[in-house]
C-alpha cells in the first residue's frame, strides 16, 4: 500500500512539474509539496542515487553547492541538484522527483543537495547522505533559527551515524559536531591579516566548552572563526586534512595541502568567506575522488554567481553590487568588513530591510546591533545612503557606530534615495538583501546611469 | 555609579549587547563591570547601582542559573534596597519558581518571583509587542521558546496592547518589583524605548537625563510607534 502511495505521489509530482513548466512558473517547491502531501515519507521511500552529497551550514551553502554540482557535471557525472530550488524538505522532494524515472528508478549518479540547516531534521535522516559538508554555524535569523546552539543540536541529533562529515576546523562550533561520525576537516592556515583577539561584536565560541576558561586563539579571523586552545584543559581545534596554506592575490591562486601534498587552485572570489566555500568544495571533491585537474579547470572559469555580486565601471567609478543578507548579522558583517576594507574613497547605499515585513509588518531591527557597522567608520567612507522603512533605525545604529551624521542620508523608498548619490567617489557599493536582488539589479542600472551622466557633465564643464 | 553586566560572553544574543553599549554613552561617568561566567558576581561583595543580564541560549540559561543559586537572599535584599535590575529576553525566567522542559522535567529557579516558565522547543514564538509601562508606550519584539505563567498582578511590568504577552494570550508581560525590570522584549530594548531609558536613568539618580542622539532616537521611536499602532501583522 505504501509503495502504491509513493508511486501516486511520484507521478503527481512529475505531472505538477510538467504543468508548472508549461505555465512558465517556478517549479522548485510545488512538485515536492504535492509529493509530500500524498506520501509524507516520500523522502525515505524514494530510491536514492548511488551517491548522495549534502551541503549545509549557516553561510556559504548555496555557493558551495553550485560549485559542487557544476564540477560533477563537468566531470561527466549525471547529477541532480536543487541548485535553483528550495533547500527545505519540499525543495529536496522536488529534486528527488527529478532523480528517478516514472518507475522510481534512479536516473542520476549523484544527488547533490543544499540542505537548510534548520530543516535538516526533516531531510537528512531520510536521504542518508554519504557525505555532508558543514560550512559553518553562526547566528542567523532569530525568528527561524533562534541561536547557533539550537541549530547545532538539530544537526548533532539528526545527521545519520554513517554519514561522513567534511567540517570546517576553523569554525569551532561546527567542528564539535557528531563526535562518533567518520570525518575530515578543512582549514585555512594562519594568514598575515589574522589577529588573536576578537574585534567583532559577536563571538559565539570564546570560552572552552569543557571548563569555561577563556580560549586562547593561535589565530582569529572573524567572529569565532580561527584556531584556538584552552589554557586550562586539553580542548583545542581539530587538525585539518585539507589545509589552505597560502593565498596569492596577485596570481589569483590558493595553495592547498592535502595530507602534506600541496597543489594550487585558482581563486574564485577574493572575499575570504568565499575562499572558505571554495576550500569546502575542493575538500568534498577530493573525498569523492574527482580528478583535481577538472576541479581546477572549472574553478578557473567561474566567478561567484552574478545575482549575489556584480562589479562594473560607470563614468570611471567602480559600481559594486553585493549581497548583505538581512537578519543574518554575520553574513552582513562579512560584507560590511569587505566593503570597509576595500581601498579608495567610496559611497555606499544600504537597502537590507526585510521585503516581507516591509509590506505588512514592522521588522525587528535588533540584529543590526550584531552587525559590525563600525568597519565602515573610516575616512574612505564618504557617504552612506540608508534606504528603506527601517532607515531611521539603521541611521541610529550607524551613529552609535561612530559615523558622523553629515555622512548619512535617509530615505524610506529605495529608488528615491538615488538622489543623494555623490558621484565624486572612486567606488560605489550597493548592499542589498537576499530577497530584493531583482530590485537591486534594477537600481544598479540606474546608479550606473547616474555615474555615466555625471562623467559626461564633468567632461563638458572641464 | 557602578553597573554590573553579568555574563556578557554568553548573555548577548539577538543584539542585547547594545543596551549596555548605549547606556555607556548615556552615563559616561559610570563604571561598567563585565563579569564573566567563571567569576563570582561583584554584587555579592560590593555595592552596585545596577545589574544587567541579556538573552542567552537554553543551556547557558541553566548555566547562569546554577551560578546564581545560593545567592537568592542577597538578590532579594538588593531588590528591596532599590538596586536597578534590567533583564532582557529570557534572562528574567531564572528569577521565577521553575522552568519546565518540554518533557515535563523542571529546573528550579531562584524563586524570587512567583511565576513559572514552560519551554516549548522546537515551537518558537515571534511577535512584535506594543504595550504600556505606567504612561510610557513600550515597543519591542519577542522571539523565544518559552511562555511564562502565574505572574503576580503586583509584579507586572508591561501591560500589553498588541502582540504576545507572557504567553500568547496574556495581556501582561515581564515582571517588576521596586527597580527590578524583567521583560521578554529583546535586542536593543533601551535604544528602542528612549522614554523608558530616561526613566531608568532617573532611577539611577540622574536628575535631568539627556540621551545621546536624542533627536534621532526619538524619530526612530516615533516611526516605530506609528507602525505598531497601524493595522499590521504582529506575529
Give a description of the structure.
Chain A is of the alpha/beta class. Chain A has helices at residues 2-22, 30-38, 42-45, 61-74, 89-99, 124-127, 142-145, 148-158, 272-287, 292-301, 329-341, 355-360, 391-400, 437-461; strands at 51-56, 79-81, 110-114, 131-134, 164-168, 183-188, 216-222, 225-229, 242-248, 253-258, 261-266, 309-314, 317-323, 346-351, 381-387, 408-411, 427-432. In chain A, strand 9 and strand 10 (253-258) form a beta hairpin. The radius of gyration of chain A is 23 Å and the shape is globular. Chain B has helices at 17-26, 58-68, 72-81, 189-192, 194-203, 214-229, and strands spanning 2-6, 31-35, 50-53, 84-88, 98-100, 106-108, 116-119, 125-133, 136-144, 146-149, 156-162, 172-177, 180-183. Helix content of chain B is 26%, strand content 29%. Chain B is globular, with a radius of gyration of 17 Å. Chain B contains six helices and 13 strands. The A-B interface holds A 139, 142-144, 146-147, 149-150, 201-203, 206-207, 212-214, 329, 360-362, 364-370, 389, 392-393, 395-396, 399-400, 405 and B 9-10, 12-18, 21-22, 25, 36-38, 57-60, 121, 124, 126, 128, 141, 143, 145, 186-188, 191-192, 212-213, 216-217, 219-220, 223-224, 227-228, 232-234.
Q: What keywords describe this structure?
A:
heterodimer; A: 462 residues; alpha/beta; UDP-N-acetylmuramoyl-L-alanine:D-glutamate ligase; Protein-Tyrosine Phosphatase, Chain A; nine-stranded mixed β-sheet; six-stranded mixed β-sheet; 14 helices; 17 strands; B: 235 residues; Rossmann fold; four-stranded mixed β-sheet; 6 helices; 13 strands; 26% helix
Amino acid at each position: 500500500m505504501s509503495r502504491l502511495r509513493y508511486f501516486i505521489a511520484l507521478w503527481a509530482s512529475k505531472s505538477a512539474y510538467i504543468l508548472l513548466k508549461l505555465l512558465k512558473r517556478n517549479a522548485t517547491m510545488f512538485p515536492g509539496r504535492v509529493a509530500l502531501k500524498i506520501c509524507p515519507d516520500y523522502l525515505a521511500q524514494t530510491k536514492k542515487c548511488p551517491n548522495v552529497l549534502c551541503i549545509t551550514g549557516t553561510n556559504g551553502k548555496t555557493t558551495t553547492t553550485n560549485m559542487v554540482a557544476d564540477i560533477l557535471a563537468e566531470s561527466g557525472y549525471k547529477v541532480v541538484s536543487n541548485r535553483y530550488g528550495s533547500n527545505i524538505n519540499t525543495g529536496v522532494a522536488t529534486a528527488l522527483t527529478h532523480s528517478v524515472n516514472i518507475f522510481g528508478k534512479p536516473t542520476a549518479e549523484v544527488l547533490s543537495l543544499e540542505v537548510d540547516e534548520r530543516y535538516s531534521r526533516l531531510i537528512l535522516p531520510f536521504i542518508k547522505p554519504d557525505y555532508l559538508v558543514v560550512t559553518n554555524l553562526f547566528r542567523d535569523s532569530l525568528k527561524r533559527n533562534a541561536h547557533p546552539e539550537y541549530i547545532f543540536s538539530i544537526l548533532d541529533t539528526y545527521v545519520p551515524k554513517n554519514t561522513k562529515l567534511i567540517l570546517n576546523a576553523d569554525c569551532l562550533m561546527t567542528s564539535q559536531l557528531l563526535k562518533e561520525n567518520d570525518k575530515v576537516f578543512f582549514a585555512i592556515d594562519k594568514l598575515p591579516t589574522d589577529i588573536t583577539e576578537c574585534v567583532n561584536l559577536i563571538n559565539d565560541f570564546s570560552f572552552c566548552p569543557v571548563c569555561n576558561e577563556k580560549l586562547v586563539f593561535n589565530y582569529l579571523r572573524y567572529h569565532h572563526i580561527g584556531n584556538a586552545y584552552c589554557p586550562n584543559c586539553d580542548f583545542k581545534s581539530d587538525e585539518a586534512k585539507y589545509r589552505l596554506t597560502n593565498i596569492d592575490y596577485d596570481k589569483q591562486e590558493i595553495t592547498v595541502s592535502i595530507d602534506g601534498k600541496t597543489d594550487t587552485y585558482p581563486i574564485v572570489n577574493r572575499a575570504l568567506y568565499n575562499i572558505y566555500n571554495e576550500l569546502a568544495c575542493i575538500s568534498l571533491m577530493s573525498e569523492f575522488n574527482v580528478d583535481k585537474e577538472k576541479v581546477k579547470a572549472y574553478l578557473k572559469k567561474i566567478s561567484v554567481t552574478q545575482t549575489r555580486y556584480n562589479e562594473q565601471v560607470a563614468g570611471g567609478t567602480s559600481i559594486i553590487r553585493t549581497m548583505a543578507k538581512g537578519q543574518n548579522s554575520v553574513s552582513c558583517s562579512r560584507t560590511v568588513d569587505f566593503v570597509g576594507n576595500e581601498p579608495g574613497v567610496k559611497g555606499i547605499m544600504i537597502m537590507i530591510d526585510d521585503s516581507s515585513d516591509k509590506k505588512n509588518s514592522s521588522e525587528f531591527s535588533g540584529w543590526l546591533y550584531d552587525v559590525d557597522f563600525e568597519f565602515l567608520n573610516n575616512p574612505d567612507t564618504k557617504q552612506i545612503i540608508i534606504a528603506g522603512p527601517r532607515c531611521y533605525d539603521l541611521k541610529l545604529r550607524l551613529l552609535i557606530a561612530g559615523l558622523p551624521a553629515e555622512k548619512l542620508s535617509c530615505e524610506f523608498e529605495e529608488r528615491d534615495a538615488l538622489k543623494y548619490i555623490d558621484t565624486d567617489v572612486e567606488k560605489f557599493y550597493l548592499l542589498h538583501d537576499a530577497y530584493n536582488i531583482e530590485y537591486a539589479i534594477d537600481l544598479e542600472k540606474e546608479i550606473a546611469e547616474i555615474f555615466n551622466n555625471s562623467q559626461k557633465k564633468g567632461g563638458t564643464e572641464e | 555609579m557602578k553597573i554590573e553586566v553579568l555574563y556578557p560572553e554568553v548573555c548577548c544574543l539577538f543584539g542585547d549587547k547594545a543596551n549596555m553599549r548605549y547606556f555607556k554613552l548615556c552615563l559616561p561617568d559610570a563604571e561598567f563591570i563585565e563579569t564573566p561566567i567563571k567569576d563570582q558576581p561583584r554584587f555579592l561583595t560590593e555595592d552596585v547601582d545596577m545589574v544587567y543580564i541579556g538573552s542567552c541560549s537554553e543551556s547557558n540559561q541553566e548555566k547562569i542559573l546554577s551560578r546564581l543559586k545560593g545567592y537568592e537572599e542577597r538578590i532579594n535584599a538588593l531588590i528591596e534596597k532599590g538596586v536597578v535590575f534590567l533583564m532582557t529576553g529570557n534572562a528574567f525566567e531564572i528569577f521565577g519558581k521553575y522552568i519546565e522542559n518540554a518533557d515535563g522535567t523542571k529546573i528550579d529557579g531562584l524563586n524570587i518571583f512567583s511565576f513559572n516558565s514552560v519551554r516549548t522547543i522546537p515551537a518558537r514564538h515571534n511577535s512584535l509587542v506594543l504595550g504600556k509601562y505606567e504612561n510610557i508606550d513600550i515597543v519591542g519584539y519577542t522571539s523565544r521558546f518559552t511562555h511564562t505563567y502565574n505572574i503576580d498582578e503586583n509584579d507586572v511590568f508591561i501591560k500589553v496592547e498588541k502582540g504576545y504577552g507572557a504567553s500568547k494570550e496574556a495581556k501582561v508581560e515581564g515582571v517588576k518589583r521596586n527597580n527590578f525590570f524583567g521583560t521578554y522584549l529583546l535586542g536593543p530594548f533601551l535604544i528602542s524605548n528612549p522614554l523608558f531609558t530616561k526613566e531608568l536613568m532617573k532611577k539611577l539618580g540622574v536628575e535631568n537625563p539627556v540621551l545621546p542622539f536624542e533627536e534621532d532616537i526619538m524619530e526612530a521611536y516615533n516611526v516605530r510607534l506609528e507602525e505598531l499602532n497601524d493595522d499590521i501583522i504582529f506575529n
